[in-house]
Specification:
By secondary structure, the chain is α/β, with parallel strands linked by helices. The structure holds zinc ion (ZN).
């Protein structure tokens, strides 16, 4: 595990972008833009819970490619994203051990060929929308070893987990803990606010900070306000970039 070096950066990502969450995503992007954020990694689900492929949704591809033209990045995020309930509590390992059940970890327990097939189909969906993803991030960061091999062999440049960014091309891992909120229950929201306040402070000296936003976060005022406030604070001392830009920067300046 190598430490990130050079320009202090912040990567803000929006998870679970799809026609299902499209309007909420636009709302989030609007408010982030108001903070001065001009580069976001959009984690796009090719067929969210099987409710419809992105290529079948009128206007979605146009909107997505427009966002890429303005500086955002598209990251492939699973295929169906089968897990219904929210993960990414900041306690991913606990979720794996305590509440993981068969069929929920789309890219966690699947075999190599199955993963490759989903990756290819996802890539085709994105291509039909006029965009290409250099990165792949598994739902809830749950990427099993076979699936990871498939991601690498499909030619993706990088992946991330809750605690690191892995560049396949340079074979380097960068330790970096993502801020992420859990909003499913009141007590989780209270814990999330305290945890992320602590984590933001604890990682304030890190050269890469990560903010991971899920669309349901925006339904809760206190969570939304904290995310926007932390974004503004980080933008004051850091350069905003996408994962793709950040990984490329590390390669060019090892
Ligand atoms: Zn997700």
């Amino acid at each position: 595990m190598q430490k990130a070096t050079k320009t202090p950066a912040v990567v803000v990502s929006i998870h679970d972008v799809s026609p299902v969450t499209w309007s909420r995503t636009q709302e989030i992007l609007g408010e982030l833009g108001g903070c001065g954020l001009d580069a976001v990694s959009l984690l796009v689900i090719p067929d969210h819970h099987g409710k419809g492929r992105i290529s079948d949704c009128a206007g979605f591809g146009e909107w997505l490619s427009g966002r890429v033209c303005k500086g955002d990045e598209v990251v492939q995020h699973g295929y169906f994203h089968r897990r219904q309930s929210r993960l990414g509590d900041g306690f991913a390992m606990r979720i794996v051990t305590e509440s993981y059940t068969a069929g929920e970890g789309e890219f966690f327990d699947c075999q190599y060929e199955e993963a490759r097939e989903m990756l290819r189909r996802g890539r085709e969906e994105l291509a039909a929308c006029g965009v290409e993803a250099k990165g792949f991030i598994a739902p809830a960061w749950l990427l099993g070893s076979h699936a990871e091999e498939a991601v690498r062999d499909e030619g993706f440049d990088y992946t991330t987990r809750i605690g690191m960014v892995r560049d396949f091309k340079s074979a380097r891992d960068f330790s970096s803990r993502s801020l992420v909120w859990s909003v499913r229950a009141g007590w989780r929201r209270v814990c999330s606010l305290a945890w992320n306040r602590f984590l933001a402070e604890a990682t304030s000296g890190s050269l890469l900070c990560r903010i991971g936003i899920h669309p349901p976060d925006w339904e809760h005022g206190a969570i939304r306000r904290q995310i926007l406030s932390l974004t503004r604070t980080m933008l004051a001392g850091r350069r905003a970039m996408t994962y793709q830009q950040w990984v490329t920067l590390q390669r060019n300046d090892p």
